[in-house]
Amino acid sequence: MKKRILALFLTLSMVTAVGCKGTAPEDATSEPKEEATVEVEPEETPLTGENLLQNGDFTSGLSGWDTYCYDGECGLLVNKDGALDCCIKSVGSVDYGVQLFHDSFSLDEGCVYKLTFDAYSDTARPIQMRFQINGGDYHAYYEEVVDLGTENKSYEYTFTMNEASDPAPRFCLNMGVMGDMGADFAEHHIIMDNFVLTLEDNSNKVESNSQVSIPDIAVNQIGYLPNALKTATIKGSGLEQTAKLINEKTGKAVYEEAIGKGEKNADTGDREAVFDFSSIKDEGTYHVEAGDAISPSFVISKSVYDDALAAAIKMLHYQRCGCELTKNEAGDFAHPACHDSKAVLYEDNSKKLDVTGGWHDAGDYGRYSVAGAVTAADLLLAYENYRDVFDKKNLPDVLEEAKYELDWLLKMQRSDGGVYHKVTCRNFPGEVMPQDETDELVVMPVSTTATGDFAAVMAIASRVYEKTDKAYSKKCFDAAVKAASYLDTTPHDSTGYRNPSDVTTGEYEDTCDVDERFWAYAELYKTTGDKAYEEKMVSELPNNGYTLGWQGVAGYGAYAYFTSKSATLLPDVKKDAEAAAKEIRGFAHSNAYGSSIITNYPWGSNLTIANNGEYLLMMKEALGEYDKETVDKQLNYLFGNNATGYCFMTGFGTLYTDHPHHRPSQVVGKTVPGMIAGGPNNGLNDPYAANVLRGVPAAKCYVDNAQSYSTNEIAIYWNSPVIYLLAGEISESKGGR
Asked: pLDDT tens for residues 494-522?
């Protein structure tokens, strides 16, 4: 394995948990003629002598400083002298076994920097000082070995940033195993203070030319179905102009409308106006002009979403674990079988289990039961409702793809019905292909949330496969019943799954399992009609909102119950479900982009947008209530009609996500098509986002950079609701359900 320094990946699976109270957020067309651009002039870097490392003297405690321990152990405190005391209890097995790090600064190409600090160790030893890229291969821009003695000493280093400017590098000191030290090196203390990083010479600074042009007119860059809502959102130079819809074949305007000064949007910081050209149904390629502002090109066509749907499903195939992906099926992303060794059971490392298969969850290679179950459920429910769409010959077999995940989930069920929460290595891998993550696989303990989700999706599977594979249908049904029996005899879990100290992969933490139980019993009732399951479902009515996602799943349960043959439509459940739909519609109609999120955009906001569209489609089936415009708006938002100007599906549109936090794409240097990026996240939960997006309005807090895992990672359960949403849109356009 190449030497690299691993950062602590706070992936999508580490979204902040919520309790049971309140609703839980869940977690190419032709080139346009011209674009109105937003250009940011590069800031001059002054020679002020200012310390670029915040709190380098620790007067504010540990603020800005932290540790990443790959397999070592370290505690931090500020001692009575105001210095940083690193108590290293175990150095681990590699140089980054213990790492002290600091983010929130930048390095500019061609500039000269000076670093000074004071340090000593109570046991003489070497450490490694590095300025490095905080992602990818974690290579160093500059590094030195520092030999620490037992007497306090001042150190000074001067270096030139010879690579492209980095707005979010990492300064770190590796204090794990080095030189002839052994893993049993005794516990010791390293004392450090007065870290100062200053810019010494900027005369050779290389100005960056990497500017992204964002049009002042946002549209669905993939395009629109003829009978769908078709709108463009106009801002900046496009306001107070005449907007024109231009047919690119003829070059003539087919529709035009005067645009006013727009209304201020607090979430974007812009004034915006909507240009509605829904009356135009003729197929063709178009763009919108308003004064000097020109939108990306887009298509109006009955088949406009066929390729996008196929790619969204194929994305899951690219994520397959435990099997070879051949050149014919995966192209540049082909790889041999990965993660095919048995996994050790964390609770008893003398036991090993075969848990091969399933999908890699996201940009990393972990496999998580709650995320996998929800993803498979979206696929199966989409097929159950829109079979006319999926039976088309040019689409991947969605039932075969779902079955690949279900087969893995079945391996994750324990003999007593409980379902193991996840299987991962103990730490996230570096920038490697899946077959090159060879650390030991670990199966983590059973959780009631994983068990509830498992019971629900297996009950759905027993219905869906009953006509095509009765034996498999029965297998899924029996597994669902066994999982439900486990829930019957297992108390509620109010703490949720938590990682032990030596495991840093995603938790998918959830302190409320009522909604998972509700969903499980509702699906079993829908499948069997057994009143006993209805009674159990009624005893588990959620009070954390009727939403969709991996954390809040009550919306799935409500849909299952309302579409059961003998449902009595519980008044309170119906009222709450209708209120959730009303809130989605209200938010979307108050926003020029049609976003159903207001004020705060959470990690994976595109999941929320897609889930809200899916939810409204479900409520049409369940309650007969439908707002097609709002559904259309959610899809339009995802495909480019949003404040960032990006189409969030990789490989589609004009300006699209092309540098996702996704290891295979990063290693190959190309991007897997059909993946949905996480989207705006004003929590700024990674160092790159925190540096680059500081002060940016919430709805614009997105950056197309692989280092920004909190805005630009991908996930299987971000794709699955888009698959449902696309299928629903296509079916509705053809007079389907």
From this structure: 889 999 989 999 999 999 999 999 999 99
The model's pTM: 0.89
Q: Catalytic: 704?
A: yes
3-state secondary structure 242-306: EEEEEECCCCEEEEEEECCCCEEECCCCEEEEEEECCCCCCCEEEEEEECCEECCCEEECCCCCH
- Residue 713 is among the residues annotated as catalytic for this protein: yes
**8 Å CB contact between 67 and 89:** no
Fold of 47-201: Jelly Rolls (2.60.120)
Please say if 661 is a catalytic residue: yes
Query: Among 27, 71, 361, 364, which one carries the catalytic annotation?
Result: 364
Distance CA 697, CA 265 (A): 10
Domains in the chain: boundaries: 47-201, 306-733
Rounded CA-CA distance 630/228 in Å is 11
State how far the Cα of 449 lies from the Cα of 369, in Å rounded to an integer: 9
DSSP string, 384-434: HH-HHHHTSTTS--HHHHHHHHHHHHHHTB-TTS-BB-EEE-SS---S--G
Residue 43 scores a pLDDT above 50: no
Catalytic residue of the set 287, 360, 421, 661: 661
**From 510, 614, 704, 732, active-site residue:** 704
Q: Which of 166, 713, 729, 732 is catalytic?
A: 713
Q: How many CA atoms lie within 13 A of 664 on its CB side?
A: 25
User: HSE on the CB side for 286, CA within 13 Å?
Assistant: 32
Instruction: Kindly provide the residue ranges of all beta strands, DSSP E only, lying in 304-359, ordered along the sequence.
Output: 343-345, 348-353
Q: Class assignment of domain 306-733?
A: mainly alpha
Annotation marks residue 658 as catalytic: no
